[in-house]
Amino acid sequence: MSSFIERISELVVGSVESVSPDAVSVLLELDAPQATALNTGTPTAFPRLNGYVLIPNETGATVAHIIWIGIERSPYPKRSGFKDFGLIDLPFPLRKMTVTPVGTLTARRERETGVTHYNLVRGVVAFPSVGDQVLMPTPEQVEAIIAGKDTDRRVPIGISPLASTAKIMVDPDKLFGRHLAVLGNTGSGKSCTVAGLVRWSIEAADRAKRDSATAINTRFIILDPNGEYSRAFADLTGRVRVFRAGDEENPFLLPAWMWNSHEWTAVTHAQPGAQRPLLMQSLRDLRAGRSTREPLHVGIVRQVRLFKSRTLAYIADGTGTSYTDFVPLLNCCHLFQNLVEVMRDFEGRVEEADPAREHIQALAARAEEFVARHVVQRGGRPTYNAPNVAEFQTFIPLFDAVEQALPAVPMAEEISEDAPTPFDVRLIADHVDALSADTATNANVANFIATLTLRIRSLLADRRLSPVIAPEHPPTFANWLEGLLGNAAGSNGQVAIIDLSLIPADVTHIVIAVLGRIVFEASQRYQKQHAEGKALPTVLILEEAHTFVHKGTEDEADIVSPSRLCRQAFERIAREGRKFGLGLVLSSQRPYELSPTVLAQCNTFLLHRLVNDADQNLVARLVPDNVAGLLKELPSLPTRLAVLLGWATPIPVLVEVNELFDYQRPRSADPDFWEVWTLANPRPVDWPRVAREWTGDEE
Ligand SMILES: Nc1ncnc2c1ncn2[C@@H]1O[C@H](COP(=O)(O)OP(=O)(O)OP(=O)(O)O)[C@@H](O)[C@H]1O
Ligand SMILES: [Mg+2]
Known about the structure:
The protein is α/β, with parallel strands linked by helices. Helix content is 39%, strand content 19%.
């Protein structure tokens, strides 16, 4: 048996020639292994790209990752031992490699057993110096580098192709706690990886749970626009809730009363000015159970209080930050334009002799003056001038005067237009119409409102959509939440799959925005109510993330659109979700098109094959670790191979994701042209049926 020193010397493969923070060049010994190394005890491929070497230092060893291997012809060969002065020096091939330091391996020897435990820590404590020896890691060391001895790494996700015995385990707290992005081209294996992560997490939790009598307490919510995932979990009966539009047993429902006012505005394209306030008023009325109209003076007082509170908010913000930037400034001018319209409208409806009338007129005139001063038409386009605090202050006495001139209205507890209070969704168009009949004094406004109610009616009349947003038997909000987020004991399953494949494409954005927002708010509220402020760990998975959290463009800043709401909902989850125990998993083919805010908040990345240049560059800029070499492999990664890097792993590693059996894979097999062409696989065609379905004709 060889001594310790001898063993170390057997492992030396070269020495350091030059050092810079991101690259160390190493001269390989003449007798260093070539192709297959036996000196570690087990045959290992060496030297090999993406393999690891160790450079011992005072704290342990710096782990470095091989990024380049080559031969350089040097005039002075390194000769050991014999004198050969008589020989002519011919250029001599020397093997060299470039490595990047990625972490530090520390060793702890157990006194009694003499077993050495290795532990890998992130970061490089000491850079090597010229002449330092470079060692090949032993299989135990490779395993410690790749799999880690960290006891928190509990979920196996794959193996390392560099050391085929080393299982790669991850710590779910780290993987899901700070958001994960799974990126790669189509067909590179993202959906399989995501399905695997969920499955392996559940299996690991099952093995480790403390109480065999109850179900494990995991909460995964998969937003599945293509309807791929229900198949992947079909074998886990009773543990997965699949919600699908039109399903008999478990229909996907998203009653429109759950939408907040922004979501309503986005879906109905309600314009600022006349349409939006009416829509808001209707929402408030219906949520408060008021389908009958309130007396005129109550309406006026309510509006005046609303505008007053908004104006006070501008005054309170004395720094002016909220009304000098373009978008807030625009909103501010819209607010006062609105005030003009609303007051002019009331003016037409109060009695001639009503003492409030002159105050209403005064308020409207002042607001008109304000708008004229701040909204200037320049070359056919409006430009906006910033107001100052004193101007806002002039409105306050005018508001008060109107309110005092009217009969007293108690400060009723206002029901918010945003609260998910159930109401009969089908009444909303009629209610808006009724309000508009009361208010609209001129035909133009009435027509303008009619376009809004037309849109609401056609939305509710959509054959595919109406059972989802205006179901006949709507669930209670509590039951609905339980279906989405799972019940207390986890007895209704550990995974919720929202299959959105049957939802009309034009509303999937808003549906995903609403689901994202509600999941976020539910986590937030759970934590607030918890006696010790603890969070409920929940994982929200979004497929095709580039479609739903697209990076924004400047010119859409002032429109409330479904895609903007969707992006905002997920940007908020990405920024704040961690505090409320909500982890996000995004799967996307085009990281370049994803919202940078969301991507920047992802701390762990699983990168599959990425061919596009822009995508690769983006990823290279985002990732925290020094992984130039590994990322160069991205365009050539085969399916199932991925680079795991970021928070969940101390150093970036190449993972061969565990294989899923056919029945465990999401439904997304590559199309089998040949089989169909050659009639090996029949494909009956029924276009009339497709056409009927498409046009909405009953079958
Ligand atoms: N872990 C795995 N186990 C078994 N097969 C896999 C695995 N990963 C990928 N595959 C194979 O690769 C195919 C494509 O994978 P997948 O559907 O996950 O790609 P994708 O990246 O989600 O593609 P898209 O972007 O088009 O949705 C699968 O149908 C499957 O045959
Ligand atoms: Mg996919």
